[in-house]
Design a protein that fits this description.
By secondary structure, the chain is α/β, with parallel strands linked by helices. It contains eight helices and seven strands; from the N terminus they run H-E-H-E-H-E-H-E-H-E-H-E-H-H-E. A seven-stranded parallel beta sheet has the order 3-2-1-4-5-6-7, sandwiched between helices.
Length: about 280
């Protein structure tokens, strides 16, 4: 974890919320001061970055993942009494304990970012059933259950927002063998639409963020030159992104800047799925 990342979030998100100019007022809608956000899978990769971006936008944070030391160190860096809970999010007791900690510490939850995720390695015909179920538990069951558990707090929060981190492989099939991942992310996308329909009248927005290829542990940091070249060739912007390029889309969905956006998939892939 590079704590200097705390300084990397674009200045858009640190605009004075009391700004009086038209531009300042518009940008202030991206602020999350006084809001509480939960980010799962925050010990590395995109989740770590999401926690930093939300904090820089003013939110107070609860973060979770299995690696205790990493989430504790990030919580310390985020400051202001950030809650960190270490545990396996596939475990129902971990999810319940997490929600209880948030209730006790903050008494509210405004933004739920279901980010923790992982991939299987097929081909399907060689996989065990246990491997497939593990991935579905992580990528689909845990996000659904966290929404269920968070519902009372989200209903009570004005302008609450759920962001389910899906994938381009929730929208198109992958050629790489990862059946459970594709199935889970596709289901997460339609769960997002379903919950948006159910919770619209409760004032809770539910959207999916669908990244393309970002350099993290999950993607092997895209160090394989031939894989990199193939992705760059297919991507309209012709390059591999930096994880900071998800800051804007995430904070947008989390904030009042997206107050009329629900049931949508925001794909951030440099145009990979556009052609
Ligand atoms: N990177 C990409 O290009 C990309 C593209 C599309 C979608 N995504 C999605 O973005 C999300 C984050 O991916 P990433 O690339 O940042 O992956 P990553 O670097 O491997 O990070 C995954 C995070 O999830 C946590 N996690 C994994 N299994 C867990 C478990 N059983 N219980 C609790 N936490 C668990 C990990 O923490 P611990 O190991 O400490 O538990 C880690 O913090 C995933 O949902 C992924 O599908 C990523």
């Amino acid at each position: 974890m590079n704590l200097n990342q705390l300084d990397d979030v674009p200045s858009t998100f640190v605009t004075d919320p009391g700004a009086t100019s038209a531009g300042g007022a518009a940008l202030s809608r991206f602020r999350l001061d006084g809001r509480v956000a939960l980010v799962t899978g925050a010990s590395a990769g995109l989740g770590e970055r999401f926690a930093i971006a939300l904090r820089r936008a003013g939110a107070e944070l609860a973060i979770t993942a299995r690696r205790t030391e990493r989430v504790s160190r990030l919580a310390e860096a985020l400051g202001d009494g950030t809650i960190s809970v270490a545990g396996d999010i596939r475990e129902p007791e971990v999810r319940s304990a997490l929600m209880a900690r948030i209730r006790d510490r903050y008494g509210r939850l405004d933004v739920l970012v279901n980010n923790a995720g992982g991939c299987d390695a097929g081909p399907l015909e060689h996989q065990s059933l246990a491997e497939i179920v593990d991935v579905i538990d992580l990528d689909l069951v845990a996000p659904i259950d966290l929404c269920r558990l968070a519902a009372p707090l989200l209903f009570a929060a004005p302008g609450a927002s759920v962001i389910n981190v899906a994938s381009i492989f929730g929208q198109v099939g992958s050629r790489a063998p990862m059946a459970a991942y594709n199935a889970s992310k596709g289901a997460l996308v339609n769960f997002t639409r379903h919950l948006a329909a159910q919770w619209g009248h409760r004032g809770v927005r539910v959207n999916a963020l669908a990244p393309g290829y970002f350099p993290t542990d999950l993607t092997g940091h895209l160090t394989d030159p031939s894989q990199r070249a193939a992705i760059e060739h297919r991507t309209l912007l012709g390059r591999i992104p930096d994880t900071t390029e998800l800051d804007g889309p995430l904070v947008f969905l989390a904030s009042d800047a997206a107050s009329y956006v629900t049931g949508q998939v925001l794909t951030v892939d440099g145009g990979w799925t556009a052609t």
